[in-house]
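Re: that backbone. Tokens:
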């Protein structure tokens, strides 16, 4: 795994980060990101007291674990990092992901200066594994700024790597936290991908709409960008049409029950469920279990291929939306130095309003993909108890 404040038209207004000196030997009081991977992969955003603020799945199995926690009313939120680590291990063990002997290992990564927390997490994990007779490797490492930027780019598509690298780690974590709070009920990877993609364009469109009002009586800016407010309005309408086309095609490729992707997802879930139940029931031989593992691995490979095919099919409409978006970015970059603080506040206010309304509309439109309605939340394992 490896400021002078610039006008980024941020999704949220970033507050100056306060850093507190602590007693010698303690970790600094600051927000952190902790990722835990053992096939199910989860990301936790921790507050300055190392309590979980948000939990997000980094893969499909991670969505399953979060769904199980929600169903059992054992939410990760508000737990300490150590408690979240133990709950993760408990749920993966109780649902067939974590077995007594495996070639896999548990990988934990934590951002910031976190030696004390790393030690506590390692002690928690090794104690749980030993108590439950689980022989598995355990590795803990730093999550550096480059890693944080990579995670932020995945859920904050309105930012570029250049913009994110101008921020400090605490500011990046704050942005990740806000984004994850928005998607906490989205328990499939594809619904989050659609949300992140459309939200990014919604933000740029809101900025341009606000800018159009600002430059109505400013011929200097109109000359600079080479567009009148009326022409900008036409660009906005064209962009909205491209977004609708992208959304429609995305739904066809990823959400339609007749799509290749959904077919492969069903096959993957079926194979995974069979493997997890066999592990839990403990009635099959090692050879039979190995055969189920192979079937699940092949189903996952087929799902990955289906995802690639779906994205390829989306390439044309994605490119059209990206091209239109780049025009907006060019305009915003041209005028950023000419706008007053009042103008900037107006644009940020418009963005916050637009994104809030978009989130509400998105959750309503895709309610069948949310929370307990998601297909990962529908899986019930026969544990043979």
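Recovered sequence:
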């Amino acid at each position: 795994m490896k400021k002078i404040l610039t006008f980024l038209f941020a999704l949220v207004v970033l507050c100056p980060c306060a850093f507190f000196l602590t007693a010698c030997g303690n970790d600094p009081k600051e927000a952190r990101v902790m990722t835990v991977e053992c096939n199910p992969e989860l990301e936790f955003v921790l507050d300055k007291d190392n309590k979980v603020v948000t939990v997000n799945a980094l893969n499909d199995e991670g969505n399953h674990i979060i769904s199980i926690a929600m169903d059992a009313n054992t939410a990760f939120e508000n737990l300490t990092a150590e408690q979240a680590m133990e709950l993760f291990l408990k749920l993966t063990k109780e649902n067939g992901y974590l077995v007594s002997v495996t070639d896999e290992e548990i990988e934990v990564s934590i951002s910031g200066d976190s030696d004390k927390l790393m030690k506590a997490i390692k002690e928690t994990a090794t104690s749980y594994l030993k108590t439950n007779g689980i022989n598995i490797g355990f590795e803990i490492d730093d999550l550096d700024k480059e890693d944080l930027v990579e995670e932020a780019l995945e859920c904050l598509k309105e930012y570029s790597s250049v913009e994110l690298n101008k921020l400090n780690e605490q500011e990046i974590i704050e942005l990740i936290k806000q984004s994850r709070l928005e998607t906490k009920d989205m328990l499939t990877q594809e619904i989050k991908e659609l949300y992140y993609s459309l939200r990014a364009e919604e933000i740029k469109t809101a900025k341009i709409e606000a800018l159009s009002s600002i430059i109505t009586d400013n011929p200097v800016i109109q000359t600079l960008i080479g567009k009148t407010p009326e022409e900008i309005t036409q660009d906005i309408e064209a962009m909205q049409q491209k977004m609708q086309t992208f959304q429609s095609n995305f739904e066809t490729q990823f959400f339609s029950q007749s799509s290749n992707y959904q077919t492969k997802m069903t096959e993957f879930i079926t194979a995974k469920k069979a493997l997890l139940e066999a592990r839990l029931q403990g009635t099959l031989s090692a050879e039979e279990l190995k055969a189920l593992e192979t079937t699940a691995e092949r189903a996952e490979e087929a799902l990955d291929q289906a995802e690639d095919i779906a994205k390829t099919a989306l390439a044309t409409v994605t490119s059209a939306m990206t091209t239109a978006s780049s025009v907006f970015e060019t305009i915003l970059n041209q005028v950023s130095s000419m706008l007053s603080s009042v103008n900037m506040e107006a644009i940020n206010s418009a963005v916050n309003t637009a994104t809030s309304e978009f989130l509400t509309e998105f959750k309503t439109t895709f309610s069948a993909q949310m929370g307990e309605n998601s297909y990962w939340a529908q899986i019930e394992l026969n544990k043979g108890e």
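The chain has 13 helices and five strands. The CA atoms of residues 185 and 371 lie 5 Å apart.
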